[in-house]
Amino acid sequence: MPSRKQKKDNPKLTKLAHNLTRTIVQFIAGKRYEPMNSEELASALDIAPIHEKVFLKILSDLVHDGQLDMHRGCFSLPGQKEQLVTGTISVHHKGFGFVKVTEGPDVFIPKHLINDAVDGDTVEVEVASVVSAKGPEGAVIAILKRSRSHLAGTIVRKSGNHFTAYAPLLGRDKPVIVKPNGLSLKEGDRVICKVTNWRTNEDLVEGEATRCLGHISDPSIDVEAAIQEFELPDGFSKEALAEAKEFGKKVSTKEAKERIDLSEDECITIDPDTARDFDDAITLTKDEREHFHLGVHIADVAHYVMPNSHLDKEALLRCNSTYFPGQVVPMLPEELSNELCSLKPNVKRLTMSVLAEFNRQGDLVDYKIARTIIKSKKRFTYQEAFDVLQKKKKSPHSDLLFRMVELCHLFKQKRFERGSIDFAMTEEVIIVDEKGVPLGMKKVEYDITHQMIEEFMLKANELTAIHLAKQGKSLIYRIHEQPTAESFQDFYTFARSLGFQLPGTPTHKDIQHLFQQAKDSPFLSQLSVGFIRSMRLAQYSPDNIGHYGLSLEHYCHFTSPIRRYTDLIIQRLLTDNLPEDTDLQEIAKACSEKERVSFKAESSVKLLKKMRLANTYFAEDPGRVYPAVITRVKPFALFFEVPLFDLESSLHVSEIGNDFFEYNASKLSFRGVHTGRTFIAGQAIHVQIKTLDFILQETKWALASEPDTLPRRPIARKTS
Predict the structure, then answer these.
(1) Could you give the percent of the chain with pLDDT greater than 90?
(2) For 73, phi and psi rounded to 5 degrees?
(3) Angle (nearest 5°) at CA 283 between 345 and 419
C-alpha cells in the first residue's frame, strides 16, 4: 500500500503510486520471480525514466513498512529471503555447477554466478527462491576452502617473460599466467602450476610452473596428465605396500578350514579381454525340481584390508579404481588387486558368497550369505563365452553357460515386470598400444554374456541390501532419485521426432514399450543416451530412497570390493567388522564425489585418444569425408556423431548451408526456407574435419556432400 506521505500528494501521483505499488508487489510475489536489485526491477517492469524517482521511493517505503525485504541490494517478499548454505561445488565443463549440501537437493549455480569457484571447492551459497528444472538456484558468495593448490594446464603462447596456459579445470574464459620458474617452456607443453593468485585485477589466475610433463603431441603422457589434472592419488605408501606383501601369494590353510569349502564346485569367471582383477565368479546348478542354485562369489577383500590399516586409508583416499585406455589407477596395490583378491583360475581364493535358490519361474526360494573358499575352473573372456554359446567353440563348461542364459532370461523378465528399462547399449572401446598411441576402435556388443553377468551381480547386490536392512543395520545404499515429469519432456519430444508414438502423458510402461520397439531400429543408442541425460546420476547414501533405474526398493554395491570402497564397507557389515564410529554419511559422500571425478578423468583421456585417432586420418588425407548421424537438433545448432571415431560434435545453424533455416520445436528439426532441405535427428550426413585442437579438446567439422566411395583407412583401423 502507498505510504501515508504519498496520500497527501496530488491525485495523479497518488494514483500512480498506488498502481506502481500493486504492480511491484504482484511481480515480486510471482512464482518465477528471482530476487532483483532496483535497476533490474525497473527494467523488468519497464518503468519510464520520468517515473524512476517515484519508483525508488515506493521501493524504499515498502521496505520501511515491512512489505518487502532487501538483502544485498535485492528485493523480495518477507519469507522469500535467500538462504545461506555451504557445500562442495561440482563444476561442469560448460561453466555452470551444482553445490552438494548436507541436507536438501543440490543447488544449481549458473555460470555467471560461479564467482571463481573451481571443482571441489567448499563454498557458501546464497539460495534464491526460484526453483528451475535443474532444482533450486543460487549464487556462490564466498569460497571457504580451495580444493587444490596446483593446476594442470597446457601452454598456449608466450607473453613477454611469462606464458599463458589453458587449464581445463578453469575453462577457456579463465587463462592462467604462468611464470616459468627456471623451466624451459614452449607452446604445447603440459605443465603443473602452483597457484599464487586465484584472481588478479584483470580477472586472471597466476601461477608458477613446478613441473613440465611433456608436450601435448606425446600420447604416452595422456594418463599422467589426467592424474595430475584431476589430482588422482598415484602410488601407494611404503606401509600399505608392506601390508599387502605380508599376505604372500597363497591362501593360508588355517583360514581355508574356517570357511565353507566350495573349491570342488564348477566355478567360472567371465570378464573383458584386458581384465586383470577378477573379483566375481559364478556357480549354477539345477536340482531334480528344476530349481536353480546360484552362487555369486566375490573376492573377500575385507579379510585382507582391515579397518584403519594403511591399506584401508589408501583405499578410502581413492574410493574407487580409475580406468584409462590401456592403464588403471587401482584402489588397492597389485599384490592384492591382481593376486590374492583376484579370482584366478586353478588357485584357491577366499570369497564372500551369495548362495540363492530360485524356482523354475525365477522366484527366490531361499538364500544365505557366507564366507567361502572357491577355485575357479576357467577364466572366460566375454567373447570366448559367447563363442561357446554360439557353438563355435567346445567347452566342458558349456552346460553351465547355457544354464546361466536360462536363469538370466528369467531375471530379465522379472526386471521388466517391475518396470526397469533395458537399454542394451553397445560400447565403443579405444584400443591403444604400450606407448598410448591409439590404434582403432573396438565395438563391444551388449550380448547375452554381458547380460547374464550383470543380472547375477544385480541380484547379489539386491539380496545383500535386503539382508542387511532386515538385520536393522545402517548401510550405504546405491540410490537413484525418481526424475520429475518435467525433466522427461525434452526426451518425449525427441522420441516423437524420431517417429515413435507416445501418448500425451507417457507412463513407465509406455517408456518400456518404446525401448522394446527401438531395439530393432537404428535409434536405440540415441534414445538411450537421451533418456539417461533426462535423469539424475545415481549416488551413494545411507538414506534409502530406492533405485529408480532398476525399479528396486533396496540396492547396494557389494560385488566389486577390489575397485569400490563402498563394497568393502558392505563386506565389513556382513561380517560385523565395521567400527561403530564409522561415518557412513561421509564415506558415501566421498565415494560419490570420487566416482564423479574418476568419470571426468576417464572421459577426458578417452576423448583425447579418439581425437588422436581422428588426426591420423586427417594427416593422411585432410579432405577425407566421413559418414555421421545427427543425434540432436537445438534452436542454434545440430549435433552429430562420427561412428568411426565415436566422436560427437556440432555445427552451428549458420554452417549447415546457404539458406535460412527455420527451427521446428515440435519435430526438433531445421528446414531451409528456400531449398526445403531438412535436418532431423537420426538423419545420415557426411562431414569433413577442419581442425583438431588437442589442447582445448575440440574438433571443428564442416558439412560435406556424400562421397562416391567410402574413405580408405590408414594404419590405425577400427576392429570388431
Answers:
(1) 63
(2) 80, 0
(3) 125
